[in-house]
């Protein structure tokens, strides 16, 4: 083997709570994360409370109709405002001591403390986070220095313009999977097609032949899979184009001429991850290609499950400590090479 073959990031980076802590501050905090659909917050008072990389968050549409995001943390003694989930409220009441805030995050009432005499309400608004939407998807970011969402997406925006917008399709639902996997092990896997023949037997033998060109894109920091489908058996109604993307650090987008799905890779701990995937489809265009949208979603979920299963076994072996590092194929793993370069860029100066 040539000594110039790219070497993987160290095994310890997949099995360390200390590395995960560095990633929270230097990767997760500094990027945008898709956490919901825009239409889930259609009306004033609608909210979503969730947790992103161990930060409890709440996103709401305030009483004036503006989208806002906050840390789900009371300014008094760090009590919770809302339980994780979706709902409707006109403001926030801390579930610990009853401090009250309006839907714009301003402090309104402090039981046991007199306004202005004992506390300056103007200095104790909720901690804000950034919120932005694109293509019917809602994103949050915890760092003010991060570029705006469209700049962060980079070349993804013009690529998406070649495919149907989500607003023109029907939302099909979502699937959530949780596994004992480091987020980077899942990213390594998602950035290459090297494993498809071994792991995804059905996908590898599908009715369409796929010609896939994989390239890294610096403008947006993502791996792009430019896909051409050619149907077998003479049914050329199923010929077409697609584009799959792994956007660093944890966003997967899958565009086709009749459907779209997007997946967020949510790191929960150094050895645990949550995957959430949302589906849209143009049923009329799918029917013209003799494709059943239900079968399409079922196949997508199967691929997710197969990926999770193999990555869980990889994580087990990484945690065992025998393997320390490996070599990557410049032909078969160009996407994984780029993904790991981005990880190194973010972490090496902090080690």
Explain this structure to me?
With 351 residues, this protein is of the alpha+beta class. The protein has 2 domains: 33-145, Rieske [2Fe-2S] iron-sulphur domain (Rieske Iron-sulfur Protein, 3-layer Sandwich), CATH 2.102.10.10; 171-350, Alpha-Beta Complex (Naphthalene 1,2-dioxygenase Alpha Subunit, Chain A, domain 1), CATH 3.90.380. 25% of the residues lie in helices and 32% in strands. It is built from 9 helices and 17 strands. It has helices at 17-28, 149-153, 156-160, 183-190, 196-199, 201-204, 283-288, 293-320, 334-347; strands at 33-37, 46-52, 55-61, 67-71, 85-88, 91-93, 100-102, 107-109, 128-134, 137-141, 170-179, 208-217, 222-231, 240-247, 251-256, 259-269, 272-281. The strands form 3 sheets. A 7-stranded antiparallel beta sheet has the order 1-10-9-4-3-2-5, with no helix packed on it. Strands 11-17-16-15-14-13-12 form a 7-stranded antiparallel beta sheet. Strand 7 and strand 8 (107-109) form a beta hairpin. The radius of gyration is 22 Å and the shape is globular. The two termini are 29 Å apart.
């Amino acid at each position: 083997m040539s000594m110039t073959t790219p070497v993987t990031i160290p095994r310890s980076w997949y099995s360390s709570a200390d590395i995960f802590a560095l990633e929270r501050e230097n990767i997760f905090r500094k990027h945008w994360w898709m956490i919901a659909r825009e239409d889930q917050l259609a009306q004033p008072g609608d909210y979503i409370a969730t947790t992103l990389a161990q930060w409890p968050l709440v996103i709401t549409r305030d009483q004036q109709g503006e989208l806002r995001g906050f840390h789900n943390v009371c300014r008094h003694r760090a009590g919770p405002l809302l339980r994780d989930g979706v709902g409707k409220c006109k403001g926030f009441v801390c579930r610990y001591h009853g401090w009250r805030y309006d839907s714009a995050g301003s402090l309104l009432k402090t039981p046991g403390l007199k306004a202005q005499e004992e506390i300056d309400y103007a200095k104790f608004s909720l901690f804000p986070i950034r919120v932005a939407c694109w293509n019917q998807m809602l994103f949050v970011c915890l760092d003010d220095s991060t570029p705006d969402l469209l700049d962060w997406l980079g070349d993804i925006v013009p690529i998406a313009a070649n495919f149907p917008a989500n607003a023109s399709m029907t939302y099909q639902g979502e699937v959530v999977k949780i596994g004992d996997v480091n987020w980077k092990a899942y990213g390594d896997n998602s950035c290459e097609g090297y494993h498809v023949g071994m792991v995804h037997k059905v996908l590898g033998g599908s009715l369409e032949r796929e010609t896939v060109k994989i390239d890294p894109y610096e403008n947006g920091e993502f791996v792009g899979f430019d896909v051409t489908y050619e149907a077998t058996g003479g049914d050329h109604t199923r010929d077409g184009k697609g584009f799959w993307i792994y956007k660093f650090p944890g966003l997967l987008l899958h565009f086709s001429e009749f459907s779209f799905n997007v997946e967020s890779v949510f790191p929960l701990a150094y050895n645990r991850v949550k995957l959430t995937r949302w589906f849209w489809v143009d049923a009329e265009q799918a029917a013209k290609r003799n494709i059943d949208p239900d079968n399409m979603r079922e196949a997508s979920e199967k691929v997710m499950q197969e990926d999770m299963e193999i990555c869980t076994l990889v994580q087990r072996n990484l945690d065992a400590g025998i393997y320390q590092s490996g070599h990557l194929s410049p032909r078969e793993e160009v996407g994984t090479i780029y993904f790991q370069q981005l990880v190194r860029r973010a972490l090496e100066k902090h080690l």
